[in-house]
Amino acid sequence: MATADDDTVTGPGERRPADPAPTGTLDPAKVTTSLEASGGAGLGKITAWAFWDWGSQPWNTVITTFVFAVYITGESFGSTNYTSQMLALATGVAGLFVAALAPVLGQNSDRSGRTVRNLRWQTWLLALIAAALFLVKPDPAYLALGLVLLGVGSVVSEIAGVNYNATIEQVATPRTVGRVSGYGWGFGYLGGIVALLAMYFLFISPEVGLFGVTGDEGLDIRVSMLMCGIWIALFTIPALTALKDRPVPRAPRVGIVDSYRLLFGTVRRLWGTSRHTVWFLLASALFRDGLAGVFAFGAVLAAGTFGMSAGEVIIFGAAANIVAGVATIGFGAVDDRFGPKKVILLSLFSLVMLGLLIFFLHDGGKTVFWVLGLGLTVFVGPAQAASRSFLARLIPEGKSGEIFGLYATTGRVVSFLSPAAFGLGIWLGARVTGEENTQYWGILGIVLILAAGALAMLPVKEHTDHRM
Questions:
Q1: What is 430-458 written as a DSSP string?
Q2: Whole-angstrom Cα distance, residue 421 to residue 424?
Q3: Residue 140: other Cβ atoms inside 10 A
Q4: DSSP letters along 26-44, please?
Q5: What end-to-end distance do the CA atoms of the chain give, in Å?
Q6: DSSP notation for 152-179
Q7: How far apart are the C-alpha atoms of 171 and 268, rounded to whole Å?
């Protein structure tokens, strides 16, 4: 990869001397240099890269969506409204920590050239936290422990995701980044279904599961968490082996205060040279928080509002991951052909309509949730993958960690919105209807955030024209 002392590639067959400004100054003429310099990779290396999505997916699918989130909001830990609101609070607090840490840690990865090394230890820590959820017994006294572990793990997962996203430049080019990003997301969804079904058929569904595991004291769920930790540690090995840290010029170490000073300098340069990139970061902050809300509270709604059992939620999750995986991989080609903005807007407007239908038809029972819930999964993954590919096309060489860290931060600065809107919706529903369980009102909060993100995205220019 080029450094600040090398000639900088500005386009196919064109070179010019590097600017004397700091490395990675966000000049629109130099965007996509990281992807251009990478030259892409073969299917084998792309698949190895995507195995991090596959390996880490149980944290999102099994733990934070379909199994542990349902478990921790169950009656064993308190009333549905109370545990749902506590989950929303824990999710929001974790988001604030991500907002504070992500850009600085991403920047330090860029400066040290240790993106993959950092990804490695963060992945192992995530596996350890997942396994530690085994300690959470079905008793109100363990609610705080479960939420703290879930919150800390969410922070680690997000920070690791910053470093993982930064490695996309090792396997993609501007012409293939949509397909590569979609392939990774889709591969992750398919990994999630395999993990989910494995936990369900080996431990949760049978009266006596593998190793004699039963449902007493939530042992089936708790052992599944232990297996998720093992899964994460094992299946991320191909990515952590194939990806390599690239040498960078030695840079002086900087403290936390200086790291933020440099970060604010990056934001100022970004505003001055590529203002629509800033608008994209702000718009994506809103809609990605809405997408996170769909994941965080979808299965909770399935159980608490539509009366699905834990087993039914898992079966739904398996079907949802198949739909999401296939749709995300398919939309990757649409991304490269028509542009990521169109994919994002189509997905967001579809999610808003489906969310409203879920609210108005909540009395329709499980069939309504199966049909509309699967409809939601068609569009969540493509919006996420297209958002990642949109930004990857804009990042100058040597700034991937910092910019993806900024990407995570802008998302997490407003990460309290979806949990807060979900919790506020439940409270408002109780005030309006007088019902004891108004969990379904929470979906209105998520829809509101998704709609705001879609409206904010409308004026953002395509990645091909981000000049002021």
A1: HHHH--S--GGGHHHHHHHHHHHHHHHHT
A2: 5
A3: 11
A4: --GGGTTHHHHHH----HH
A5: 28
A6: HHHHHHHHHHHHHHHGGGGT--TTTHHH
A7: 30
Residue with tokens 């792309």: 46
Largest CA distance in the chain: 69
The model's pLDDT over 378-397, given as tens digits with 9 standing for 90+, comes to 998 899 888 888 887 876 66
Measured CA to CA, the distance from residue 409 to residue 95 in angstroms comes to 9
Q: Are 379 and 346 in contact (CB under 8 A)?
A: yes
Tell me the range of 292-306, 401-415, 442-456 where mean pLDDT is highest: 442-456
Angle between helices 310-338 and 366-392 (to 10 degrees): 40
pTM: 0.69
Gap between the Cα atoms of 154 and 296, Å rounded: 11
Phi (first) and psi of residue 243, to 5 degrees = -80, 140
Instruction: Give the length of the chain.
Output: 468
- Give which of 412, 406, 416, 411 is closest to 105, Cα–Cα: 406
Instruction: Measure the CA–CA gap between 177 and 316, rounded to whole angstroms.
Output: 30
**Which residue, 72, 46, 451, 380, is CA-closest to 239?**
46
Whole-angstrom Cα distance, residue 1 to residue 296? Answer: 38
DSSP β-ladder status, 14-16 and 8-11 = antiparallel
Q: What percent of the chain has pLDDT over 90?
A: 24
Helices 177-199 and 43-58, packing angle to 10 deg? 40
For 204, other C-beta atoms within 10 Å of its C-beta total 19
Per DSSP, helices labelled H in 113-135 are: 115-132
Measured CA to CA, the distance from residue 11 to residue 22 in angstroms comes to: 20
